[in-house]
Design a protein that fits this description.
single chain; 573 residues; alpha/beta; Rossmann fold; Glutamyl-tRNA Synthetase, domain 3; Ribosomal Protein L25, Chain P; 4 domains; 26% helix; elongated; binds adenosine-5'-triphosphate; binds magnesium ion
């Protein structure tokens, strides 16, 4: 069991209601002091940052209380699930910093679930219904009016058993019949109005192959899988609170039938607790919607850096430490709320400020010739790798007669308060010298192609012996030594802060057509030629960037330098 507790970036956890509950249970000896949680994704897509909240909670609680957390695939819908998603989920959990151990699957328990279903039938607690899904749904009633009994509700045990066995034997086509619990069609909680336990699906399953023509519903599989595994605290999101009485009903009935006595942890009846799901502005957190973006080519894939998936954020350059610190900070509550994405970004920025190497990149270069600097001369200047981390050391950067500067660090006619380079104005080049612009060279179309400057050799290291001051320090790279790169900037994927919250509109209507900005022709300092795949760096004065995992010479902007969260906080007072 991994535990990022030794990680200095993980803020201490607030003692939330889940942790209070676990602590109380441990003190009172409920579950004989055992603590076991689980993270139960359906492998029908890759994980997103909402799942990170659940992972941090479940694995975090287990680690803090000396318990166990299992990764369980709730794989009950074969058509939409795949092995790729399973292995992708395992990879993502590990990347986030948790060791999931051996993965479990609801499909491991299909046989047990089937036998338990037969037991319910035998006890008169389940029946086979020949009606189609629409009819069953129409008979469910509403919150104020009761449901209607199915005409098949009074079948005998023998008939039900024979039909259910026929379902398993593959004798009926898809949708011909279902198995339902017999509870109460007038139950005030619609979840308990004879819910469906099994559907007929002649579908290939990524693990059980063609063995099963029937599949349990999530409702039937979930609580029983928890019980089988020995889960004590079954933590899920708020929308499942109405399902809790149903899960308890199943386990109570199985307990009365003596079926829980034979479990690895005899009599184990997990308790379910619900917490608020993570929501973020400018984001959708639904695998279905994210899958739509992928299958319609609206993004490059599940790991597109604009995606709120863990693999997208990883490619974007988010450190897992920052995600964990964010989750610890927002805590766990019982009321839904939406967090500003800028808050998340501030955690990313803090982490990267502490840990990333500083490098120089010129994104939109303009050529500068230092006329009084000797041709062919190169000076290697010492530059600090990370002012926040003295152990990160220094590197050598080459200075020569021809440099690249950022085009927007120059204005031929400076605007008011523009203190960067302009004709006649003197600025400092970081780690190097003061330079002054003497001439602007243009082509026939009047476009600037080159700046002519002079430098003051007495200002080596960026200090003037006569004490004269400059207002600005600029970054630069030596033209002859520069490395070419493509740099990608990302804007919000959605134009609306709450894409989900517009009545009658699909959130995808608010996709930002300008979410990706490709900058080709960037010039980098030579040390960046050796950037490792996925290496995170700060481009000085520009932001935090991450080398692409696969393509050398491609960098993604992770987050800018400016703290937008501080501004929002100020606005909120
Ligand atoms: P989605 O709607 O994205 O498909 P889901 O809840 O259907 O999400 P699951 O694979 O069933 O996806 O989720 C696995 C676990 O992650 C569940 O316990 C679920 O409660 C939790 N989870 C999913 N989304 C969030 C979220 N936004 N915040 C916190 N936990 C979440
Ligand atoms: Mg789901």
């Amino acid at each position: 069991m991994s535990n990022p507790a030794g990680d200095p970036t993980s803020a201490p956890h607030h003692v939330d209601f889940i942790r209070e509950q676990v602590q109380r249970d441990q003190q009172e000896g409920t579950f004989a002091g055992r603590v076991q949680t689980r993270f139960p994704p359906e492998p029908n897509g890759y994980l997103h940052i909402g799942h990170a909240k659940s992972i941090c909670l479940n694995f975090g609680v287990a680690a803090e209380f000396g318990g166990l957390c299992r990764l369980r695939m709730d794989d009950t819908n074969p058509e939409t699930e795949s092995v790729d998603y399973v292995t992708g989920i395992e990879t993502d959990v590990r990347w986030l910093g948790f060791e999931p151990g051996e993965t479990r699957y609801a499909s491991d328990y299909f046989e047990q679930l089937y036998r338990w279903a037969e037991r319910l039938i035998g006890a008169g607690l389940a029946y086979v219904d020949d009606q189609d899904a629409e009819t069953i749904s129409a008979q469910r009633g509403g919150f104020t009016e009761p449901g209607t009994d199915s005409p098949f509700r009074t079948r005998t045990v023998e008939e039900n058993l024979a039909l259910f066995r026929g379902m398993r034997a593959g004798e009926f086509p898809d949708g011909a019949r279902v198995l339902r619990a017999r509870i109460d069609m007038a139950h005030p909680n619609p979840q308990l109005r004879d819910p469906v336990l099994y559907r007929i699906r002649h579908a290939h399953h990524h693990r059980t192959g063609d063995r099963w023509p029937i599949y349990p519903t999530y409702d039937w599989a979930h609580g029983q899988s928890d019980a089988i595994e020995g889960t004590t605290h079954s933590v899920c999101t708020l929308e499942f609170d109405a399902h809790r009485p149903l899960y308890d009903w199943f386990l109570d009935r199985l307990g009365e039938l003596g079926e829980l006595d034979t479990l690895a942890v005899p009599g184990n009846h997990p308790h379910q607790y619900e917490f608020a799901r993570l929501q973020l502005t400018y984001t959708v957190l639904s695998k279905r919607k994210l899958l739509h973006l992928v299958t319609h080519g609206l993004v490059e894939g599940w790991d597109d850096p604009r995606m709120p998936t863990l693999r997208g954020l990883r490619r974007l350059g988010y450190p897992p430490e920052a995600l964990r610190a964010f989750c610890a900070h927002i805590g766990v509550a019982k009321v839904n709320s939406i967090h500003e994405i800028e808050l998340l970004e501030s955690f990313v920025r803090d982490e990267l400020n502490r840990t990333s190497l500083r490098r120089t990149a010129v994104l939109r270069p303009i050529k500068v010739v230092i006329e009084n600097y000797p041709e062919g001369q190169v000076e290697w200047l010492e530059a600090v790798n990370n002012p926040e981390d003295p152990t990160a050391g220094t590197r050598q950067v080459p200075f020569s007669r021809e440099l690249y500067l950022e085009a927007d660090d120059f204005m031929e006619v400076p605007a008011p308060k523009f203190y960067r380079l302009s004709p006649g104005n003197e600025v400092r080049l970081r780690y190097a010298y003061f330079i002054r612009c003497t001439d602007v060279v243009k082509n026939d179309d009047g476009e600037i192609v080159e700046l002519r400057c002079t430098y003051d050799p007495a200002t080596a290291g960026g200090q003037s012996p006569d004490g004269r001051k400059v207002k600005t320090t600029l970054h630069w790279v030596s033209a002859a030594h520069a490395v070419d790169a493509e740099v990608r900037h990302y804007n919000r994927l959605f134009t609306e802060a709450h894409p989900d919250a517009h009545e009658g509109r699909d959130p995808l209507d608010f996709l930002n057509p300008a979410s990706l900005e490709v900058i080709s022709g960037a010039k980098l300092e030579p040390a960046l030629a050796e950037a490792a795949p996925s290496q995170r760096v700060q481009f000085e004065r520009l932001g935090y960037y991450c080398a692409d995992a696969d393509r050398p010479g491609l960098f993604h902007r992770t987050v800018g330098l400016r703290d937008d969260w501080a501004k929002i906080r100020k606005r909120q007072g």
